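Internal tracking record. Fields below are filled automatically when a chain is submitted to the structure queue. Please do not edit lines marked as system-generated. If the sequence contains nonstandard residues, flag them in the REMARKS field before resubmitting.
Queue: standard
Priority: normal
Entity type: single polypeptide chain
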Amino acid sequence: MDAAYTTEALATGAGRNGHVSVIESDLEFDMAIPKAMGGSGAGANPEQLFAAGYSACFHSALQSVARSRKVSIEGSSVGARVSIGSNGEGGFGLAVELEVVIPELDHATAQDLADAAHQVCPYSNATRGNIEVKVTVSDD
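SYSTEM-GENERATED OUTPUT FOLLOWS
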């Protein structure tokens, strides 16, 4: 791969209960295990950060596909729901649900754009075949 951009983050402290800083940016997070997993929930967690990155990246892919097809997707949004749980083999796995909303388009056209974005999004390409990713187009 010919890298167009590279970034770096550093985790310190106690992992999920530690601190993360992103080099050459203002991003710094205190991390905390979510309450649902027995933690305090008093900080960010890796699943939240993954959801934020995936939703933003997928939305950019959606916009790129729409531009190439000369389709307006003004007012669109992409939500990402990331779940973590046991993989049944002593470890953990992730699952992602992406919800695409394009208010001004008919459902079939919106779904076609979302499917195309799923083929070009770097997060989708990185996760394909590794974790379950469900892409849904919502009409609201």
